[in-house]
Amino acid sequence: MPIADHPLRYATVNELHARPFPALEVPSTAHYVAIKEPVQAHNRDRDADLRHLLALLDRHGSPHPQPGATHFQGPIGRAELKWESHTEFVTYSAFTKGLSARAFDPADAEVLPDDWLADSPGKRMVSLLIRVEVMPESEAALLARVEDWFVPESLAIARVVDGAAVVAGDFRIDPAGHMRFAVFVQPGTGPRRVGRIVQRLCEIETYRAMSMLGLMRCRTLGTRLNALDPKLAALVSGLDHAEPASEAALHELLSISAELESLAVQYSFRFGATAAYEAIVTQRIEALREQRIGGRQSFGEFMTRRYDPAMRTVRSTEGRLKAMAERAERAAELLRTRVDVERSAQNQRLLESMDRRADLALRLQHTVEGLSVVAISYYAVSLAAYLAAPLAHAAGIAKEGLLAMLVLPVIGLVWLMIRRLRNDLH
Q: Do residues 325 and 260 make contact, with C-beta atoms less than 8 angstroms apart?
């Protein structure tokens, strides 16, 4: 090789071919199950999923997939099994040739035994029974069958893939716990084309169910947002008033903002997953290339009426959470600015007070200095009088005259001395 391959080159290419469509003969029956952990499914133990698959394969003596595999396809008894591990769930598809005498007989699901399903590392999120048979000779006969099998009020039916087949279902769960779909195939349609149609039906229901989890979570989130919204609105509307105190309001607002951020972290994965699942549902329905039959609603129309409003609710709740978090952040910035201004005003008043006290202290200092000059001069004059007394006596100067002569020079010297000391200190 002229150049070494990137370590992941083959892995990225193989991923494109890891999940091929099944090839289904007509007639046949498909049983499809999606299993998901109720919480933290994206962090689940994937080895447990693989061990559960191996337990099923060992029952039928089927070959095992490679360790760490995320997909598997092979025979299991009289059926063909397809297993896939996804981000949040695992799916099992069992395809059996032929049809039961009774449409959607619960016995069609025996390929995946009940006791084995009960031991699954997760809970059943989706369970489908899909009946694949040859297209009836007349449209009236086809409509009679689907109206007998499904609830007319929620029946969705359409010609798909350029008229190669007709798909029908009512998106309801029967007493056995399965959702049912019927696929009527035109003679001459290839097995892989039939497999693609069935696979798309499975994916539509799987990703519809997974995306609806976002709606369930949004109902819980909406209750919490309804409780926080009035508090946030009251704090924001009170920004122009002196009450409550800015610091107390800021602490309360930061508490609300912290809770909103916590909610955003908790729900970010579900919002992102719901958007991705919704896009897949829309794409899979478009890939069916539906044509209306006898004025009945198609799968696309059914989703527009029943599914799209739920997804709009999820997007609305996500936008509301984001808007509230941004509003709380802006209000917190305003309150922080208000607190800073108030603190600046307090600091200014404190500095002015300190200036006044310093001025008073200076005046007091000057007063004390004057008194100090007088006190020191008094004692200095007395001492000087004792020193000069012999000379004054010899000169015939009285004591009172001597004291009078010493007062002014001593006061002047003391004043000069104190002033010099003060200048030295400054």
A: yes
